[in-house]
Amino acid sequence: MKISVPKESAARETRVGLVPESVAKLVKSGATVVVQNNAGLASGFTNEQYEKAGATIAGDFSSTVSDSGVTCKVQPVTVGEVGSLPSGSAVVSYWAPTGDEAALAALKAKGVKLLALERVPRITRAQSMDVLSSQATISGYKAVLMGAGALPKLLPMLSTAAGTLAPAKVFVIGAGVAGLQAIATARRLGGLVSGFDVRPAAQEQIQSLGATLMKADVAAAEGTGGYAKEQSQDQAVATQNAIAAHVRDVDLIITTAAIPGRKAPVLITDAAIKGMKQGSVIVDLACETGGNAEGTRPGETVVVHGVSLIGPLNLPGTAPFHASQMFSRNILTFLGHVLKDGVLTLDEADEITGPMLVK
Ligand code: NAD
Fold it and tell me: What sections of the chain are H helices per DSSP?
């Protein structure tokens, strides 16, 4: 079985599908691995490291993927790239949100199977294949660093000869994977951290990490599979009001609230932002799906009522070494699930493979 690792061509994409450590394991198990020239360079992995792991280096996309059984990528393949993929092969990568219909049609026409990594089911058995979790961990961590860097304050309380500095107040909204990592990171940096989520389990997790829970007189909004569900209109307004009152005294907000398949809920209204202190910062991790803060723009920092609204894109790509390492381990575990004696076995009835196949 030949496994290929192309260089990512999408803007801002610094990660790579497989890192040398995973390549070495695949080669040891009998696979042949071909890596495109400098595919890992932006994340800190050289051609020499891949060669040492047993891979060969190919010059361009088409020579990398020729005769490939599985192509391992971060971002979706483009229509132009599909032309080079061998019929009967498979691609493992993200598909949503940027995969396009024309590329999907071309993949189907060529008989290339597409396995979307964001569709790995959130079940215990598949946890080690879950790129949403591994990459959200990085996003939560980096969001705090980015916000701390933009604040005109330090996070910890410091007692110095020049006087005592009060700790900054950090508020994390949405305590899923990214939010919990943000809470842990902000606490490590010495911030006074509070959090809020509509799921009771997440509320407990906020407190178990040592943060305080924002009090809000709203009902739990728990959907299926551990996800939140949309709040009713009056509950959403009650949540916005509770948040508006809480954030008057907050320096840094990290907001991550999402409902699968829907636009992100607006939780910090323009009026709430107006009530915040000058120089406060909001890092809106939901900016790509509409944003939790009114006025956030994806990929930009805008200042509204003296508050910086940061809408970061591809935060995992800002820590590409560790992001790729985790992404690669997720793919490696998935390959271990579908490669039987070196042959790719894609069983549509399988609990993990079935939902990942894009049709
Ligand atoms: P997500 O990105 O879908 O959402 C982030 C958070 O926003 C969630 O905690 C959600 O409850 C919260 N949220 C939504 N609407 C909100 C609102 N109006 N106000 C405040 N908060 C709001 O979440 P995620 O990080 O993908 O995690 C979702 C769930 O999946 C969690 O329960 C997590 O533990 C679970 N999970 C399970 C596995 C597994 O078992 N393999 C792996 C990863 C995550």
Answer: 20-28, 47-52, 61-65, 79-82, 101-110, 131-150, 177-188, 200-208, 233-247, 270-274, 320-338, 353-356
Atom of ligand 1 nearest to the CA of 175: 9
Locate the ligand 1 atom nearest the alpha carbon of residue 126 and give its number.
41
**Residue of the CA atom closest to atom 8 of ligand 1:** 176
pTM here? 0.95
Question: Under 8 Å CB-to-CB from 101, ≥6 apart: which residues?
Answer: none
Which pLDDT tens digit goes with each residue over 274-291?
999 999 999 999 998 999
**pLDDT reading at 206 higher than 90:** yes
CA 104/CA 300 separation, integer angstroms = 30
Active site residues: 122, 127, 130, 133, 227
- Cβ-in-10-Å burial (0-12, 13-18, 19+) of 215 comes to exposed
Count how many Cα atoms sit within 13 Å of the Cα of residue 298 in the half-sphere of its side chain. 10
- How close is the Cα of 62 to the center of ligand 1, in Å? 39
